[in-house]
Amino acid sequence: LSEKLESAFKNIKGEGRISELNIANTVKDIRRALVDADVNYKIAKEFTDKVKETALGSKVLLSVNPGQQMVKIVQDELTALMGGTESEFNVTGNPAIILIAGLQGSGKTTFSGKLANYLKTKKGKSPLLVAADIYRPAAIDQLEVLGGQIGVDVYSERENKDAVSIAQNAIKEARSKNKNVIIIDTAGRLAVDEVMMTEVANVKAAVNPHEILFVVDSMTGQDAVNTAAAFNERLDFSGVVLTKLDGDTRGGAALSIKYTVNKPIKFMSSGEKMDTLDVFYPERMAQRILGMGDIVSLVEKAQEQFDAAEAAKLEKRIRKNQFDFEDFKTQLQQIKKMGNIKDLMGMIPGVGKQLKDVDINDDAFKGIEAMINSMTIEERRNPDLINPSRKNRIAKGSGKDLNELNQFLKQFEQMKSMMKMMNKMPMGRMPGMGRR
Ligand code: GDP
Ligand code: MG
């Protein structure tokens, strides 16, 4: 997915501003990428329409290119779609009752163990795991092994074939043993089926859980959406758990499920180790789906550091061919404010790897700044003033030799004439100078 999105964004890189045309193209590419990632077409369409609306209404930020700004918009919209902020998880009851439901193999038992471990180690709770899978004795063994690993008691009744009474007895057990959370791991079937649904619904009715978590394998794509809808209809669950995010997972599941059932995704789980449970953060998931966390932070950094008004002023000066050493110095300072040049460039997709072995240092900029600093304000504003005797003074003051200074002055003149040339072109803009 992220490769496709990257190429979608590439399409509008270098364009002068976010226009209706390049938005339409980008939006089409993003939509295709989402559909390929198993996001339902209708959802992908509604989502990209929203992005389009936002992009058209947004002001062009002068200092970053529109491609990057689109990434930011897409990321923000994705985050909003997946719930905005992380949601509450209710473990205030005594005991708090948590019912776990989902298809067989979705990761319920593994998640139950992880949740117990999380509540015990991170929330200071005293959990009791309950084995309510009445069909497979191996499921009880599995939970007991996990319980042993994390030091959490497991309640089971091997001869009892009634999930409801097991759950009720477990609550009594929890009270008598001072356990303040019980996690009921139920049986699943390979596909949605009436017996399974009725059984879980009966447990729900009998114990009135504080949380009902629907566990879903994030690798099941489109099917995950249908399963989620079926479970939600019967159980009206309170949250979703996405498992197996460590695999070659398609980010589409998170998006579609949230959109379809409109229930918060509360946890995400990757791996079989008991300590790999994460609270679900919509923003991180959006970044994961985009695969472009770094690019997004680059855009945010630029938004913080660059003053749009300053950039507009600069552009005007360039247009009038008034760009001078004072302006140049301001530009350098803007770049420096954003941090280490190499780090910044490394955030651009595709560039990072190439840059790894290249030696870029900020010292090159320091030398240039030193030369500008050794000029008087008049010289900076009017470079034509710089005659041989002034050159000598500037070179000495900046610790550079005359050759280096001459080279720099020549480069500056070349840059200026290039700007002049570009200004004559309709979309003419100096790369790196304000708008791109
Ligand atoms: P249940 O039938 O819903 O209880 O599912 P299980 O918890 O027994 O998990 C089914 C299989 O998926 C087991 O082999 C687990 O080890 C594996 N599994 C569960 N969660 C994850 C996960 O987050 N990542 C990976 N890679 N495997 C998982
Ligand atoms: Mg199980």
From TrEMBL:
It catalyses: GTP + H2O = GDP + phosphate + H(+). Signal peptide: none annotated. This is Signal recognition particle protein. Part of the signal recognition particle protein translocation system, which is composed of SRP and FtsY. InterPro entries: AAA+_ATPase (IPR003593), P-loop_NTPase (IPR027417), Signal_recog_part_SRP54_M_sf (IPR036891), Signal_recog_particl_SRP54_hlx (IPR013822), Signal_recog_particle_SRP54_M (IPR004125), SRP (IPR004780), SRP54 (IPR022941), SRP54_GTPase_dom (IPR000897). Composed of three domains: the N-terminal N domain, which is responsible for interactions with the ribosome, the central G domain, which binds GTP, and the C-terminal M domain, which binds the RNA and the signal sequence of the RNC. GTP binds at residues 102-109, 185-189, 243-246. The gene is ffh. Gene3D superfamilies: P-loop containing nucleotide triphosphate hydrolases, Signal recognition particle SRP54, nucleotide-binding domain, Signal recognition particle, SRP54 subunit, M-domain. Its main location: cytoplasm. It is found in: Cytoplasm. Keywords: Cytoplasm, GTP-binding, Hydrolase, Nucleotide-binding, Ribonucleoprotein, RNA-binding, Signal recognition particle. Belongs to the GTP-binding SRP family. SRP54 subfamily. Involved in targeting and insertion of nascent membrane proteins into the cytoplasmic membrane. Binds to the hydrophobic signal sequence of the ribosome-nascent chain (RNC) as it emerges from the ribosomes. The SRP-RNC complex is then targeted to the cytoplasmic membrane where it interacts with the SRP receptor FtsY. Its EC number is 3.6.5.4. It comes from Ferruginibacter yonginensis. Residues 264-277 form the SRP54-type proteins GTP-binding domain.
